[in-house]
Amino acid sequence: MPDRLFKTPLCLPLGEPLVGALARMTEAIGSADWFDAVLNLLGTVCAIDSGGAMVYHRDQRPRRILHRFNPSERALPEDAYLSGPYVLDPHYQLFAAGGPNGVHRLTDIAPDDFFQSEYYRVFYSQIGLSDSIELLWRIDDNSALNIFIERSIRNAKFQDADMVAIGIVLPIIFASAAKHHELTAAASRRDSDKLTHRKVQSTIENFASSLLTQRERQVLFYMISGYSSALTAQRLTTSEGTIKIHRKNIYRKLDIGSQAELFSLFINCIPFAMPEAPVDPLQTYQNTPLGARNMSLLDVAPLKA
Predict the structure, then answer these.
(1) What is the value of pTM for the model shown?
(2) What is the mean pLDDT of the chain?
(3) Structural element, H or E, at residue 105
(4) CB 3.0-4.6 Å disulfide test: which of 113, 149, 171, 263 passes with 48?
């Protein structure tokens, strides 16, 4: 008799669907079908409603590779996210902050007021999502592959068991990603993506600089990212009361009365940013005749009640 019994660490049923999905992902390495194969594999590990893949970059906007979703559940154009608001997304912010390879659930990484933020109302709620999980695989210091899966508001959010299950196949997926990247090499970056990202970065750096102090603009960015006054105070090493005063001053100086107006103003200013000069895009936007302003992607589809 053996001295001890060994138990398999695999807690997923190693049945035909999982084995078949793993095989198809391996076969697809180096081809355009690899991203579809990864999503199919994840779909055998846990229930998903939509998902896709994109590449994050520090010097340009994200590049979408694949996105599966039900168009009838989306109230915004597909390109709305890539027009600039991606910079407020917790998943993108984790990448930009140097977040590690791994599995990251939206409900775990989002700021404390994220689900009450204008960003959530305008984007996540308008595309019918309740939760998302990102598999972040860093290509290098300046770029990363983001494979994401999503749950509809019709279904429950992802649970801890889903995270555990994905974690089991994660080393296989990441090893496959490394080989796929090696074989295919990164496609040349598009100039339009670079320009959009530079405009977004310029807006972050210069938005309302003609009206607000530097500290007020720091508070403003935390506001539109979904941070509460308390968490903003913690990040900026000050008191919650001071942050609330800054918020009141921001509303007064910008002549607005809500976070919805602030968010809309920020997004609408992105096309007017000048990456080569420290110019406040808000001034340019306000000085542009209404008829000469391009319609914002936020205005294309009406918001649901």
Answers:
(1) 0.72
(2) 86
(3) strand 102-105
(4) 149
